[in-house]
Amino acid sequence: MTTSPNPPKPSASIILGIESSCDDTAAAVLCDGKILANVAASQSVHEQYGGVVPELASRAHQSNIIPVIDQALKQAGISHQDLSAVAVTQGPGLMGSLLVGNNVAKGLCIANNLPLIGINHLQAHVAALFIDHEVALPMLCLLVSGGHTQLIWVEAIDKMEIIGSTQDDAAGEAFDKAAKLMGLGYPGGPMVDRLAKEGDIKKYAFPDAQTEGLNFSFSGIKTSLLYFLRDQQKANPQFLEQEIAHVCASYQQQIVASLMKRLKKAISQRRPASLGLSGGVSANSALRKAFQAMGAEQGLLAYIPDFAYCTDNAAMVAMAGYHRYMNGTFTALDETPFARAHHG
After folding, report:
1. 187: cis peptide before it, omega within 30°?
2. pTM of the shown model
3. How far apart are the first and last CA of the chain?
4. Rounded-to-integer distance, Cα 156 and Cα 323, Å
5. 74 lies in which domain range?
6. Which residue of 26, 232, 271, 316 shows the fewest CB atoms closer than 10 Å?
7. What's the confidence (pLDDT) of residue 160?
8. How sure is the predictor about 43, in pLDDT bands with cuts at 50, 70 and 90?
9. Confidence band, pLDDT 50/70/90 cuts, at residue 344
10. What is the longest distance spanned by two Cα atoms in the chain?
11. Taking 50 as the threshold, does the pLDDT of residue 173 lie above it?
12. Are residues 297 and 317 part of one domain?
């Protein structure tokens, strides 16, 4: 088994972070916990398909990854020789996309005699909260993204436990599916958010799934929207044209209410020192507002990452990697990426 070398720590710890789990190719440079550069190339190729096509995603990563890394290093004024370690998203994600990032990271480590640090993508989203905040721990984090919806109990940046998760679809998926049903294009979440601002949140009612404990479920609300739109348009072909803002507002409101209900339940069970919101859907304006209101109501500090650190980015990977580097936790060079989430 080949392991990464453990070189003596230089006076400054400089981490290169690489993220390629889905359709964004990203690289970031972090020096002693401070972000020096955060670069991303997103892929427009998927828009015509209304969702990410894995084969096209991995090809685009192959084209983008070296220029993105070079740009991040250049922006930070850092050369390969200055690096202390390379942190890379190991999973979960699309296997083809992950392999591109992991293989380039391993190549850099071998060429420059650097340790490799494999990062769990979901833990990286939690680490994003530590970039701009001195986080009061333990923190209860609500992670909401296209592929995951979880409640995570965070005792340290590298010590966390999933205490609730979705039983079927993620909240981000429910937003994207709704946008697709209404012909709003991809990615749909931001478009639903924008239209919802002009609508009445109480005009239409959508169901909240009954789930055990702190778990979530969003497949029911997606199905109810499908039938609702079908029935309304049968009665009035112009329905969507006339009512789209109200439908978006009511649908979004129910998703946010469902998230807040479980968050409140978890607060009463766990009594955290603070709350965190992370993942791509943490950019949603209604969710941010409801989350901050929950923090105020419960008398808890409520952290949300900067918009640049909400969606998939490499700064969060570098931040998670920095803490592992300081603890001397490295990854073997023969470890392979994983497509599915490890539950723990």
Report:
1. yes
2. 0.90
3. 25
4. 10
5. 14-127+311-327
6. 271
7. 95
8. low
9. very low
10. 72
11. yes
12. no
The sign of the torsion formed by the CA atoms of 191, 193, 199, 200 equals positive
Q: Does one domain contain both 50 and 145?
A: no
Token pair 């978890």 is found at: 266
pLDDT digits (tens, 9 = 90+) for 253-294: 999 999 999 999 999 999 999 999 999 899 999 999 999 999
Phi, psi at 113, each rounded to 5°: 55, 50
Residue 142 and residue 254 share a domain: yes
Element (H, E) at 67: helix 54-76
* Average pLDDT value for residue range 43-58: 61
Q: Tell me whether residue 2 is in a domain.
A: no
Q: Above 60 in pLDDT, residue 81?
A: yes
Answer whether residue 62 shows pLDDT above 90: no
Q: Report the b/e string of 87-113 with b at 16+ CB within 10 A.
A: bbbbbbbbbbbbbbbbebbbebbeebe
243 torsion bin: left (phi>0), alpha (psi -120 to 50), beta (else): alpha
- Any residues with CB less than 8 A from the CB of 48 and at least 6 apart, and which? none
Radius of gyration of the chain (CA): 21
How far is residue 154's CA from residue 162's CA, in Å, rounded to a whole number?
9
Cα–Cα distance for residue pair 226/228, rounded to 1 Å: 6
Do 54 and 115 lie in a common domain?
Answer: yes
Q: Which of helix, strand or coil describes residue 260?
A: helix
Note whether 162 and 21 are same-domain residues.
Answer: no
Contact 91, 100 (CB under 8 A): no
